[in-house]
Design a protein that fits this description.
- This protein has 3 helices and 8 strands, in the order H-E-H-E-H-E-E-E-E-E-E.
- The protein has a 4-stranded antiparallel sheet, with no helix packed on it. The protein has a two-stranded parallel sheet with strand order 1-2.
- The protein is globular, with a radius of gyration of 19 Å.
- Helix 2 (about 45-65) links the parallel strand 1 (about 30-35) and strand 2.
- With about 170 residues, it is of the alpha+beta class.
- About 20% of the residues lie in helices and about 35% in strands.
């Protein structure tokens, strides 16, 4: 786990991540949480900025051999997908959307290059203790546990009628 936040706009920061990966003996997976955090000051709507960050993520993948997972958020209108430049989705090999429903969560494949879109899985999050901090307070995380695919949340319309919708 790397706590420092590298800047994916800077090649020297990508080199620093690669040095950390090599020092750890290599890795198979690098999770970047979140894409916005590693692109400080960048215009997420500009292809020049996001293209550079994605090119640096690709360079990290090629140098490390690891799969790179970029955690990214939807915009205010979740039905329009990820926020920012549309090329982000175009550059991705796969996109998995996480939907929060009243009775659980759903992971749905919204893009799969060279594969089928639309697969989905239900899951719940269970809190687990991973240790204690210097004040002896618990440090927790969570694990995903397979569950039924939840039913979509009900949303109120302006007329007070309920309709089904999806939220991210």
């Amino acid at each position: 786990v790397v706590i420092a936040v590298p800047n994916f706009m800077l090649k020297e920061d990508i080199k620093g991540v690669m040095e950390t990966v090599k020092a750890a003996g290599g890795v198979d997976l690098i999770v970047v949480d979140t894409f916005a955090q590693v692109t400080p000051g960048a215009n997420e709507n500009a292809g020049e900025h996001m293209g550079l960050a994605l090119a640096n993520a690709k360079a990290l993948r090629e140098a490390s051999g690891a799969m790179i997972v970029l955690i990214h958020h939807s915009g205010k209108d979740a039905s329009r997908g990820a926020r920012g430049w549309s090329g982000i989705k175009a550059a991705a090999d796969a996109e998995i959307e996480i939907l929060l429903q009243d009775n659980g969560r759903e992971a749905r494949v919204s893009k799969m290059k060279d594969g089928d879109d639309g697969a989905s899985w239900g899951f719940q999050l269970e809190v687990v203790n991973v240790g204690v901090d210097k004040y002896n307070d618990p440090i927790t995380s969570c694990v995903a546990v397979v569950a039924d695919i939840p039913k979509p949340k009900a949303k109120e319309t302006r007329a007070g009628q309920t309709r089904l919708g999806r939220l991210a």
